[in-house]
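Write out the 3D structure for:
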Amino acid sequence: MPTVRSFDYAVIRVVPRVEREEFINAGVILFCRTCPFLGARVELDPSRLAALAPECDPAEVEHYLAFIPLVCNGDLAAGEPASWPPANRFHWLTAPRSTIIQTSPVHSGTTTDPQATLDRLFERMVASTNWRNR
């Protein structure tokens, strides 16, 4: 029987105009301390970004979003944060910010398969909201 483990996750948001507090869900970060597992999936829907902020360059936003999975995977190309222990990386990535890339509050759950849970959360919170999937 698979072991049930607790995990924490946050939704990655693109907030083109911070002062308006409007956002697009663009990814999910999931951390399961006992596995250990730290992973992220990101995907920007350029059409949604254009509808919300036509002046915002999707290529630039995608560049910043691509940094998140690198940090999660411990890829040193992402700089010093990628060298930190997974818990520190997760807390750094999910710390409150007032920049174009932000995360939701951290939520918790239980899982027997962190990767499958990350994929399910991504489909529910990000892919299902993409206009091209309707």
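DSSP finds four helices and five strands in the chain.
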